[in-house]
What we know:
- This protein is α+β, with helices and mostly antiparallel strands.
- The chain has 2 domains: 5-227, Cupin (Jelly Rolls), CATH 2.60.120; 232-284.
- Helices cover 35% and strands 26% of the residues.
- Helix 6 packs across helix 7 (257-284).
- It has an 8-stranded antiparallel beta sheet with strand order 1-2-10-7-12-5-4-3. A 4-stranded antiparallel beta sheet has the order 6-11-8-9, with no helix packed on it.
- The site of fe (ii) ion has 3 residues, from loops.
Amino acid sequence: MSSLLDIDPQEFLSGLGRRPLWVSHHLVGHPLLSLKALGGLADSMRPERIERQRTDLDLVLPGGGNSRGGVESPGDLVRGIETSNSWVVLWNVENDPRYKALLDEILDPIAALLGDREGGMCRREAFIFVSSAASITPVHFDPEHNFLLQIDGVKQMHIGQFATATKGQRELERYYSGGHRNIEHMPEEADVFGLEPGRGVYVPSHAPHWVTNEGLACVSLSITFHTREILRRGNLHIINYHLRRLGLSPSPPDRSKVVDAVKLAIHRVARTARNLRKRIAESRRP
Ligand SMILES: [Fe+2]
């Protein structure tokens, strides 16, 4: 369906947001994805868009590792990844027009396939992972729908589910209220996707997962998108987080249209009031 990404359209639509799916792609050897090109990209990026972690992180690391930024000589780090005992994320590479064009080339056909489902595609973003051998990415979830495409090296992607709907709801409320993507517990079961160059996996939004790689340095391209439904439910999770802190037991999104509408109205009012306070404070600054 796309010249760069091969997926089964019916399988993708039926599994959207529900289950992972094998995909394949035609990006191996792409000139924008060589270590040399990625080193140059890293040197051109704003420091806060670059994250570096040690390879030997704990699998469960709820507070996360290093914050983004503060990486010295990021280009050298990327080009020398085979000996640097690190994994590196280049966040939001779509800020570079060349990578934005690549992102759109991959996602335009997916957006057409998606149509108005889940309110349609929005907020397209791309991230690049460059990892030394034996890197561990702790268990976490991402808000986005994600195509993780393996470009170089071999990586194991473990994708599970929250043990119960209640545990999942609490994690989402914590995350959307400013918490870390990393979660506190390993999923009880997980499917393992062994990714080699040319293979990839669709990871549903909010699915808990962790990543390991063996033997070789790895390069992976993460092509992601939101839908308007993800953003709507995210706002409901924020309201639920605050209601729970008041001692209430809020229902998860989509149980009641009326209740959801009231919560979203409260969220809009709270956001407007917050923005107003911010503007007043800024106008008073000397
Ligand atoms: Fe992830």
